[in-house]
Amino acid sequence: MRAKRKDTLMSPLAHIRRGEEFLGRPCGGRPDPKSGFTLIETLLAVGITAILATAATPVFIDVNRQAQITTADQVTSSVQTGITLYQMESLATSRPVINPSVLDTAQVGMASPSNLLFFNVLQPPITTGWSKEDAYTYRNPVGEKFVYNPDDGSFKSDSAAVQTVSNPYGTMAYSFNGIEFYDSGAIVDSLSGLAYIPNASGAGVTLNLGGGVQIGTHDDNSASITLDNGETLLVADINKPSFYTLASSYDDDEQSYSSLWVQGGQAGESTNSTKYYKKEFDYKENGGKFYYEYDLLGTYSAGSLKENLGYIQRSDYKSDSPQISEGSWVRLENGNIQGTNKHTYSYTSENRYGYNHPESQYRYAFDQKGSSSGYSETNYAYDLKNDIQTSQIKGAQQYEVDHDSSSGKIGFKDAYGYDGSTRYDKKNNTYENTMNYRYENGRDYTYQYVIDYKSGKYQNTSTDNQSGDQIITEGNLSGGATKTTRKNIKEEKEEKEKKDKD
């Protein structure tokens, strides 16, 4: 279900209907006899009257699905009315982009339940009959062509439309595997609809996350987020952490979760779903065990909200065989707890990335496909008296990657095993983690991380066990300068042995 937030997750038109304060003025209710109507109030009043007088069905209003399929003229009218309502909300909320940049992010081809047309302006969207030829061109069930012009918000038949529709992103300067770079600084993934658009409509950045979620920044570092159902989120500062649950669904066989975050001048959306084939859980007072078989499917889209640095990133992954998670635990006579968890996995993934530095005009993109499989096993213990948690970890992974980038194409595969340990002292609030990774090609690395949460001090040590090169980084979680020390432990050992002999 879509999350509801009384203070943010509400359509601007809902404020008008409820007669609440909106844009700093009372809306609805009894007007102030000493003040006239503003331009936005007049536009809203005229626009709403016009919409109510038509038979079209804009976004946020249910339409009859059969009428969408059989009556092409009605669909066309509905699309144009949905665009009009989008324009009105842009004016009412000071959204940077007046017209939708695209009517949907569907793939080229026929409409279907998995290829939804016009979902940015129609609800429910078109799922049959119509087809899409490119980002702006469509055909109705009788073959007539229609063109959307994002410059003026028109949706007209090909005979009436301007033949050359200007691209809202500017002139394309470079393209790599569907990742497009424009002279305006915009970066667009034409396959998913993910788009970074700086200086949109002369102000701020617009980030389209590809699933109908659009974020527009303002001069004061705030932002407006428009969700795919028209609801609006207000972000006070794009540099501070903000997290939202967009949707969640749980039942015995399947669960899904979708979330949105804004932090550090960036934003992202992730959607994950789990389909269970077997769920077994046996819980008793002094122990228990579990066994799960399931498939995973996920999508992650992110991008920059900064004008001086642009990037977009899209990641998709899915299981290519059922994952297995199993484990058991037992409570000992002294109250301490011991247990083991094991996870076996196999999945494929694709990562698409585009980066643009406006000042240097440096552009970089890659499209990476890969597969991975392996297992991890953890044996853990909890010392109840001393409040200390420890674990021993081991596992193995095999992976294969085809990395195609604007700098060249490479392919590689490798496998490695790993083992390590963790220790968390809750009383003293300290944490230690040591992991060793051994690759089939001979590489051997050890990583150690130690932190004192009371003081905030931490030390991160990375060691190449082949060459002996070691890097130690020390710092504080509260910030400030870090200290980095580089040395070769093999050379130090040899020098010490030589001195001892002398």
Task: Explain how this protein is built.
The chain contains five helices and 30 strands. It is mainly beta and 502 residues long. Helix 2 (39-52) packs antiparallel against helix 4. It folds into two domains: 37-168, no CATH class; 268-501, no CATH class. The chain has helices at 12-18, 39-52, 65-70, 72-93, 489-501, and strands at 21-22, 25-26, 109-110, 131-132, 137-139, 145-149, 154-157, 172-176, 179-182, 187-189, 195-198, 205-208, 214-217, 223-226, 232-235, 242-250, 254-263, 266-284, 287-304, 310-319, 323-331, 337-357, 362-383, 388-405, 408-425, 430-439, 444-452, 457-464, 469-476, 483-488. Mean pLDDT is 81; it is low at 1-35, 39-70 and 161-166. The chain starts with 11 loop residues before the first helix and ends with a helix.
Essential attributes:
502 residues, 5 helices, 15-stranded antiparallel beta sheet, mainly beta, globular
Helix content percent band: 10-25%
DSSP strand count: 30
Rg, rounded, reads: 28 Å
State the domain count. Answer: 2
Q: The biggest beta sheet, please?
A: 15 strands, antiparallel
User: Treating each run of at least 4 consecutive H or I residues as one helix, how many helices?
Assistant: 5
Beta-strand portion reads: over 45%
**Uncertain stretches of 5 or more adjacent residues:** 1-35, 39-70, 161-166
Mean pLDDT across the residues is 81
Distance between the termini: 75 Å
Given the C-alpha coordinates, what overall shape results?
globular
Query: Which structural class do the helices and strands define?
Result: mainly beta
